Amino acid sequence: MKHLATLLRETANLSGILAGVNARLSPLGPSFPTGDSVEPEALVAKIDACKQALDEINSLLNRIDKTSTVGLVLKRASFDEEARVLISRLEGHKSFFILCLQLYSRYAAITLLAKRNTYI
């Protein structure tokens, strides 16, 4: 299954990105900017959609794991197509969360510069 390795790699990459997002949203981490530029409901909806995709990946991997060798040969195209669709969804989630982290970094830099200018 040619897309399975890519799916696993993309899942691992997304995991790292989500760890960064979690650090920003964690009560112990820096506060996430709010106001007109951020809609918390939209962010929660995107996180839920990402969780659903990860649950579907888990389901696919469990089905592959439980399938006999003969079954894998017979269902290979189906599993591969499902993996390809999930890869596409993961790439969209990754792009969204990378953009969120970039916006957060920009916000943090602007906030820091504003505070610095206040002290000068």
Describe the structure.
- By secondary structure, the chain is an all-alpha fold.
- It has a domain at 44-115.
- Helices cover 85% and strands 0% of the residues.
- It is built from 3 helices and no strands.
- The protein has helices spanning 2-25, 40-66, 69-119.
- Helix 1 packs parallel to helix 3 (69-119) and helix 2 (40-66) runs antiparallel to helix 3.
Structural class: mainly alpha
Q: Distance between the terminal alpha carbons, to the nearest Å?
A: 61 Å
* Uncertain spans: none
Rg (CA only): 19 Å
In N-to-C order, the SSE pattern is: HHH
Largest sheet: none
Overall average pLDDT: 84
- Annotation field: number of helices: 3
SS elements, strand count:
0
Name the helicity range. Answer: over 70%
Shape: elongated
Proportion of β residues?
under 5%
What is the fold's blueprint, element by element?
Blueprint: H1 2-25, H2 40-66, H3 69-119
Helix pairs in contact: 1-3, 2-3
Search tags:
120 residues, mainly alpha, 3 helices, elongated
